[in-house]
């Protein structure tokens, strides 16, 4: 297994702030934990904390995130943004990840809110914690991308996850992938919400498909019809006249469609 080369990564950056402050670890509990400590200490906007392995990586809804050694990308970006940009982060991060995958030759799609899929298998996921430290708004964006591993070796991921290497048949440069993500992220932080929304919509895994929604203790069915400007999912619920906007819910594709 080859350790991530920070010098190669830095040479591929075309940014002014994202990834310019870079910390790399072999094993941590979670890159989110380290990034939170660094943000409290006043680290720079755009700081990235990367680990080769996590012992307690976490995903959405408090789930654990499988993080084997030196195969994939596990990192957190510290972002200090105005409040309106915080509202768009779900869209910005998902679009940036799609663009990074495309830069290494792999097409992918976004499963709302911000999981990245190739066909019907997950290749990347992310979680965003927005916090206020001494009046300073900070977003911690934790991202995991299956790059060169074989996630199906994990018993819980046999049929639900895939890596970029499994798609391409080739070892993918983690340094190039992360640099491409950083380059896209910095660019996307500066463009209009309408352009971002259209890019997200173009790569949506859900729009036009029949879905099942689990919202707290309620389960219902509908059709995903659009993405709102704030990243919410617009759903036409069966037997309801007006569409509903989802902000936080579990969504799955309905079978037989």
- Total of DSSP H or I helical runs spanning 4+ residues: 7
Major sheet? 7 strands, mixed
Percent range for β-strand residues: 25-35%
Number of strands: 12
Secondary-structure content class: alpha+beta
- In the sheet with the most strands, the strands line up as 1-2-3-7-6-5-4
CATH superfamily assignment of the largest domain? Bira Bifunctional Protein, Domain 2
CATH class of the largest domain: Alpha Beta
Mean pLDDT: 88
The figure for the number of domains is 2
> Which CATH architecture of the largest domain?
2-Layer Sandwich
Model regions low in confidence, pLDDT < 50 over at least 5 residues: none
What overall geometry do the principal axes of the alpha carbons give?
globular
Termini separation (Å)? 41 Å
Radius of gyration: 18 Å
H and E string: HEHEEHHEEEEHHHEEEEE
Look up the CATH topology of the largest domain: BirA Bifunctional Protein, domain 2
State the helicity in percent bands.
25-40%
